[in-house]
Amino acid sequence: MKSNFSILLILILFFSTGHAQELTKKEKRKAKKEAPPQKGSVYFTPLPVLSSNPSFGFMYGVATSTSWFMGDPKTTNISSLFAGLTLTTKGQTLITAKATAFSEDNDYKLDMDWRFLNSSQGSYGLGSGPSSNKLTSTGIEYNNLGAFSAPIDEVQMLEFQWIRFYQTLSKKIAPGMYVGIGYHLDILNNFEDNLLDLSATPPVITSFYAYNSKYDFSNDKSTLSGISLNGIYDTRDNINSTYKGKYAQLTFRVNPTFLGSDKNSTSLWAEFRDYFDLTKNHKNMLAFWAYGSFQTSGSLPYMNLPAIGYDQYSSSGRGYTQGKIRGQELFYTELEYRRKLFGTEKNPDQWGIALFGNLTTASNKDADIKLFEYVDPAGGLGIRFMVNPKSRTTLCLDYSVGKYSSSGIYLGLNEFF
């Protein structure tokens, strides 16, 4: 009897200890999950991609947003990496990795944009405004004999492969202020200019072909390789979803032939963002964004000319297809109202909405279209779902409408700017 009692006691102690250990593990996981951010904290958010936009049609794949702290959160901004593999119903394959990282105490800032695109994109000629002002809509003169090509008033579809390799490293010289240098490489090849038909009478000459002929670029491939000098001012409290701070960037890029560029050229990028807390509790935010992109000397390949959707995170131009508005000079501005609606005790900012509007203007010196001569507006609304309140990782779903019967649905991780 005593032996049976001893065995029963041992079994009770064994299971009690195991249960206590299990509770301890659960408690540890809970404590870790609820712990405040600290150096080394990592927040990983995987999501399936199910989206649609006018550039790519229906999109499906996988994407992740990873945020982390490389130093004390009190003195170090959160770093963020977005990576994704996406397939589309238009037969495109998109592989992207884009990051903004801050070292401890924000001493260094790294910006990265790597892409491989087996893709296609509609071309509408250069310059903003109605299509009647674009290069090929009324035909173009060729052979200098007063002969004109057939007019094109529809989207000119280009198929291509695009490798992008951008990285910029900047050093802090004052609180929020950085200077740095970058290297940028774009290789595009395997072009298929679907509407081009030189054997027709009159020939069908596309904007892409006409531009390449005038500026002596290949119709099969292009390379742009250059270094940049960068000045950055960044006081944003969180790059995933900003509640306070400003951002400004000035980048001058030099693309010499000895680095592999097809032609010598220079370009300038100037950008500014500001955020206004209307009720001092981040429940009602007003966000402002403006940038200008300019070819300042030489000639850029057609696909490297300033265009909407060509910023680091391809965020600009909601309401239009990527590259819809393109020119030697481009100016873009956007205003967005963000309102927090409701949530849970642990995530009070879980749900929100956004209302936004944008304006784009671009030049075309070949058709004498000047910057600000035509302005193309767009606007829309969306919903916000904060997936992780510690990193402010936010899922954004927007619908936007532009001119010329252009519209689109946009799904993304983190605020668009």
Spatial shape:
globular
H/E element order:
HEEEEEEEEEHEEEEEEEEE
Number of distinct beta strands: 18
Average pLDDT reading: 90
N-to-C CA distance? 75 Å
Multimeric state? single chain
Number of helices: 2
Major sheet description: 16 strands, antiparallel
Main structural class: mainly beta
Q: Which band does the percent of strand residues land in?
A: over 45%
Widest sheet: strand ordering: 1-2-3-4-5-8-9-10-11-12-13-14-15-16-17-18
**Contiguous runs where pLDDT drops below 50 for at least 5 residues:** none
Percent range of helical residues: 10-25%
Radius of gyration: 26 Å
What can you tell me about this protein's structure?
This protein is mostly beta strands. The protein is built from two helices and 18 strands. The strands form two sheets. It has a 16-stranded antiparallel sheet with strand order 1-2-3-4-5-8-9-10-11-12-13-14-15-16-17-18. Strands 6-7 form a two-stranded antiparallel ribbon. The termini are far apart.
Can you lay out the helices and strands and say which pair or pack?
Blueprint: H1 2-34, E1 42-53, E2 57-68, E3 79-88, E4 93-102, E5 108-123, E6 141-142, E7 147-148, E8 156-174, E9 177-193, H2 207-215, E10 222-234, E11 246-255, E12 265-277, E13 284-298, E14 329-342, E15 351-362, E16 376-388, E17 393-402, E18 407-413
Antiparallel strand pairs: 1-2, 2-3, 3-4, 4-5, 5-8, 6-7, 8-9, 9-10, 10-11, 11-12, 12-13, 13-14, 14-15, 15-16, 16-17, 17-18
